[in-house]
Amino acid sequence: MHDQIASTHEAAFLNLNKAAEYLGISPNTLYVWRHRRQGPPSFRMGRRVMYRISALNEWVIAQEQADSRSNDALNPLTQKPMKRAVRTP
């Protein structure tokens, strides 16, 4: 039973280094994002910075949806051209 709880804990949370590896970025980038309050949500568990794997996955999906290359609704090539404003002297 204890082993099952430990494996669930390891699967649910990642420390900063393992989260960076999971995302394929450097730990320093993840550290800077955290300092700037950017990037995936994190929290402290005691003295350690931790990331939920589910939060990392959700953050990646949100990043993907915010990119016009992945989201046709944001693709400027599929939008109608905007009319220019007429300047009055």
Secondary structural class:
alpha+beta
Number of strands: 3
Spatial order of the strands in the main sheet?
Answer: 1-3-2
Shape: elongated
Q: Distance between the terminal alpha carbons, to the nearest Å?
A: 79 Å
Count of helical stretches: 4
Helix content: 40-55%
Which labels suit this protein?
89 residues; alpha+beta; 3 strands; three-stranded antiparallel beta sheet; single chain; 12% strand
What do these coordinates show?
The chain is of the alpha+beta class and 89 residues long. The chain has 4 helices and 3 strands; from the N terminus they run H-E-H-H-E-E-H. It has helices spanning 2-12, 16-23, 27-35, 53-65; strands at 13-15, 43-45, 48-52. Strands 1-3-2 form a 3-stranded antiparallel beta sheet. Strand 2 and strand 3 form a beta hairpin. Helix 2 (16-23) packs across helix 3 (27-35). It is elongated and about 60 Å long. Residues 4-9 have low confidence and may be disordered.
